[in-house]
Structures are given as C-alpha cells and as structure tokens.
From TrEMBL:
Name of this protein: Glutamate--tRNA ligase
Keyword Iron included in the entry's annotation: no
Superkingdom as given in the UniProt entry: Bacteria
Residues the entry annotates as binding ATP: K244
Taxonomic classification: Bacteria, Pseudomonadati, Pseudomonadota, Alphaproteobacteria, PS1 clade
Protein family: Belongs to the class-I aminoacyl-tRNA synthetase family. Glutamate--tRNA ligase type 1 subfamily.
Gene Ontology terms describing biological process: glutamyl-tRNA aminoacylation
Positions of the Glutamyl/glutaminyl-tRNA synthetase class Ib catalytic domain: 7-308
Motif stretch ('HIGH' region): 14-24
GO molecular-function term, one example from the UniProt record: tRNA binding
Chemical reaction(s) catalysed: tRNA(Glu) + L-glutamate + ATP = L-glutamyl-tRNA(Glu) + AMP + diphosphate
Species assigned in the record: Candidatus Micropelagius thuwalensis
Amino acid sequence: MTSSETKIITRFAPSPTGFLHIGGARTALFSWAFARKHQGLFLLRIEDTDRERSTDDAIQAILDGLDWLDLTPDAPPVYQHQNIERHREIIDQMLAEGLAYKCTCTKEALDKMREKAKAEGKPIRYDGTCRNKESVPDDLPFTVRFKAPQEGTTVLGDLVQGEVSIENNQLDDLILLRSDGTPTYNLSVVVDDHDMGITHVIRGDDHLTNAVRQSQIFDALSWSRPAYAHIPLIHGADGAKLSKRYGALSVEAYKDMGFLPEAMRNYLARLGWSHGDDELFSTADLINWFDIAAIGKSPARLDMEKMQATNIHHIQHGDEDVLADYVMEQLSLSPENKTKLMTALPMIKKTAKSLDNLVENLRFLFLTRPVKLNDKALESLTDDKMANVRKVFPALQKLDAWDADGIANFFGKFMEENDLKLGQFGPVMRNILTGTGSPLGVYDLLLLLGKEESLARLDDILAN
C-alpha cells in the first residue's frame, strides 16, 4: 500500500440479540481476512440500538466467539446505542437541508394507505402524504422520513453480486427517526460507517436492499460510499436454510464439539470462497490468498463431514504445544506432566478425530494404579488370551532394551518361539494398559508408559 492509497478498514457489525452463529462468524472471518491481506484495520461494532432485544449475554457470546476464533478487532468495540446523539444530529442536519421531512401520519392512516395500495394491486409503501408539507404542528407526534429520490435509478456496484440497480420509484421514503425519538437501523449504519471510516462492507446478501437504501443516504449527505460485498448465505447440506439440526449453532457449540479455531477458520473460509482446489490450508495462507473476487454468487452448503475432516487435518498437523496445553487443561494436569505428554502427542495426534478424542486417547498416560477396566475391556480378558499374556509377562520383565527396536524385536522373537500371533494377546494387553483400549498398538503403549509402569499395570491384573 502506498501512502496515497486509502487504508482498508472493514467492520463486523452484529446485532446482539442471540449467539454468534456460523454465518456471522464467516462474515467476520472474511472481513478480518480482507483487512489483514491489505494491512488494514478490522473493527467491531455492536449494533445494539434495539435495546429491548439486545442482551449483555449475547454481547458476551459475540466477544467470546470472536476471541476463540482469534478474529481480534484492532480497536475496542463500538456500541451503536452510544452514538444516538450523533445520529440525531445528522437527522437534524438532513431536516435543515431538505433531505428529510417530518411525517405526522398516524398508524391508522398508514394502515389505510397499505389497504388501499393492496386493493389496487400496487406496491405497499408510504405514499408521500407529508413529503411536501411546509410545516407540521408542534403538538403532533411525528417520525422523520428520508426524502428519497423519486426518479432515475440507484446503482450499486457490488464486489460480489456485480451491478445491482433499483428504480427509485420502487422505493418509498424510509423512516430515519421513530416517533419515540430513536434513529432507525439504516440511518445509524450510514452514520457509523462514515464516522468509523469504513472502506469495505462485507456482509450477507440479505442486506442487499439495505445497501441500496444506505447508498441513497450516503449520496444525499455527499459522503463517499463504502465498497459493498454481499456474500450469499450458508445453507444446509439439503440446500435449505440452516437449522439447529443442520449447523445453525453457536460458535461456542462448535468449540464444545472439539473443533480447533484454526480448523473452523479454514472450513468457514471455504464456504463460498475458494483458492483453486485448495481445501486445507493455514490461516497465513488464507490471509495471503484472500480475494473478494473469488467469493461465489451461489449459497454455500454446510457439510459436517468436510468440517470434521478439516478439523482432523488441523489436529493431526497442529502445533503440539497448543494441543498439549489444551489437553493439560482438560485433564487438570500439573506442569511436570507436560514432558510425558509431549512425548506421546506426535503418535496420538495422528489418530485423533476431534479434540475430545485426542484428550481421551491421551488419558491412559496419567491414570493411577490399579487401572480400572471398562466393561468392554473386561470382556476381552478371555482365559485363552490371558494365558498368552501370562506367558509373555515374565519374558517381558527381562527385557533391557526398552525402546522401539527392542520392544519390536522382543515380540517378534517371542511370537516365533511360541507360535503365536499378535492378535492372540496384543489387544488384551492394550486393554489392560489403558483400561479402555487405544488406537495405538501395544508396542507404542509399552514404549510411552515405560518399563516400570507397563509391568506394574500388567501385574495388577495378572496378580488377581
């Protein structure tokens, strides 16, 4: 970016009336990635002007979700309701400049207006009754309406949707200020985007009509419009709107399901955006590659199998320090256990299907003796297989070279001399060593547990 170029500033602007869902998370991700790609700023605005529906819990859920995804804004959040006086100031300015007008039409009058339009087969919108009144009585309640252009066309050059145009006679004079004195969404958004210096608005295409409305207000105030990029919404695997059954869950729910934040960033990025055939990539790659032009125009479909596969990839290739810290927290391990954990992680993470699965597969390392066997493990202790384990045990006690080669060579020789196969005793030993079974083979388990602990666990069962 040269000094003469405008600094890219994007924003994520959720309404805090519920949790941060996966669609909102993707919008935030695209806005964040675009800003990072261009060394710009990513800002957060909480659009909480609907005070009745906005909740502190929802705000915290949004902040927590962004924090977990590591989509950190470059400034403290802006709370829209705190800007209400600034919004009213602009409305007063628009009234003074003839860009807006007071409307005293009652609810009853507006209802009749709608009924008449419906009966005549016309679009249901405000008919401009108060548009050209020179003044209104001071004692009547009023709203303030935007004096929208009535002729010509409003054209929006959308970075995803292409050129979008609407005939101005299809739009009515939208309300800027309600009768209770509160500014409306479209006015507040325009003022805040202008005051925050937003250069690019990336959001769902359900806001496309709002963008046309907002563009008219920007133009009326002689303010530069931001560039708009309206992205298609996310659908379920069946092509229908997302439901709780098909992915419309909070970001926190995916966290609780054992997804890594980098896996979620990877998968969400592929919902509607692509870089060739690349499916699995790092966040650094995403920032380097991200381009609004590569966002498609068709709705993306949420595929839980692909999401889980992406998560598995990132766990199996993930930063082992990060994974170890997570496991230590989940298992309430003390710091001195980290060395043992780090020794096992390279093996165990290759088998993990989720973070929860990773934790469970590592739990065996830190069990206290005697290890309690679950029902399935107990059922595996058949007489014939236990007889083979009893035959292995005294020979294993004499093994000095307790390393990968030593253990493998020992069992190879033992099976040859006793005409046994590993399946005749290995799975049972694995169940005894872990209490629950393991995706690792018995050789790896013996190596990770060490000679003393391995023999002690085996002896606890064999001695009974």
